[in-house]
Write a structure and sequence with these properties.
8-stranded mixed β-sheet; globular; 24 strands
Amino acid sequence: MVTRKEDFSKWYIQTIQKADLMDYSPVRGCMIFKPNGFEIWEHIQEALNYRFKQEGIRNAYFPMLIPESFFNKEKDHIEGFSPELPWVTEAAGEPLEERLALRPTSETMFGDAYSKWINSYRDLPMEMNQWANVFRWEKRTMPFLRTSEFLWQEGHTAHANAEEAKTRTQRMLDIYAEVIEGVLAIPVFKGEKTPSERFAGAERTYSVEAMMQDTKAVQAGTSHYMGTKFAEAFDIKYLNSDNEHVHAFTTSWGVSTRLIGAMIMSHGDDQGLVMPPKVAPQQVVFIPVGPWQKNPAIMDKIYELNEELASKQIRTVIDGSDNRPGYKFNEWELRGAPLRVEIGPRDLENNKVIVKARDLDEKVDVEFVNFAEYIENALDEMQNRLLESARERNSQHIYTDINTLEELENHIEAKKAANENPGWILAGWDGTEESEAKIKERTGFTTRNIPVDGTVDKKAECIVTGKPAKETVWLARAY
């Protein structure tokens, strides 16, 4: 298996295949989620659904097929998505009167429904989420990170005023950061997208960005403030308390299965996956060692310990296959199981097991009497350790002292000569699309977002023009 240093992208592909997370489908750009991969998504869903419901947001489901006329109601929206849309033009052997798009997102469907469901200020806020698949016909694909069909959640809300809508937009960004950091152990950079990077039809777009081990960026989640643009396009009006018909203010926000790819790229090592315990399909794997087949008491003890963990809702698996222990160790290392528990005849005599955490080298002897408590603590400690390790790694690849485009080009060349990754740059930007385009043209770096106020020191001058900086931005190469 290739190492991360040799070829990070190839390492990634090999890792997800060997860990049995996915397979390729017969349709270009689409993938099959195998149970190990889909269960990670289920745990992400659980974490988000819990928080959504605390916010009073309920789940719904809207059809996958969207009439072409819906897209034409909002000019920026159709222009933003038109190149990526697959269309259905025929059904039951006959041409359709109107083309139907496979949904790239559902603003238009929600907008049409909300225009019928919202009549009075008493109907607001209206806040719904759906878990669905979407289609965006990608030219270059990478499993989980960028595929023509992917899974996601998309929330859509309507509010009586701009202040409420903006508050919802920011709150959802905070929830994404909370889940991505707290559940996936991936540190994120919160901020606002530049105008050229805004969602098609939005007034403001905010994102959480994550740095991978190769220092490329992944846009991990977005939250959009729409103002009244979609309400005007779809006639979402309500009768306010002054007996006036006015437009609602809307938002939308979403994360997708690219979070699985980001998790793999954030924590994996040259042995394979490293799973944060909170999303690992199997948190603890039991492996009998030595001549255990001749000693039934070993498996009896494993079943007993397994029951202890199951009672605490810890996800376990017992590997009772006839493979050699060394093979099993390697297999579960590759699959990223957070904790491995070994028990053989001598361990049974000494009333203990041997525990190995996936991200640490040493093994630990744990007495039976303390077993369940130790495992609970070890899982929590590993979860925290992965987040802190990623934060420390990120800090080593952030550069705040590069102030001109020439300095950035020299930095990139120096890193390339040393066979190192170029990292992220904190730069000043004059706010023009011309300067933004020049950065990308000359370096391959793009603006990731404008950091939240107070999180970074402001830059005084634009990295391209030297003029006073209108904003401070993160620059990086991205997936």
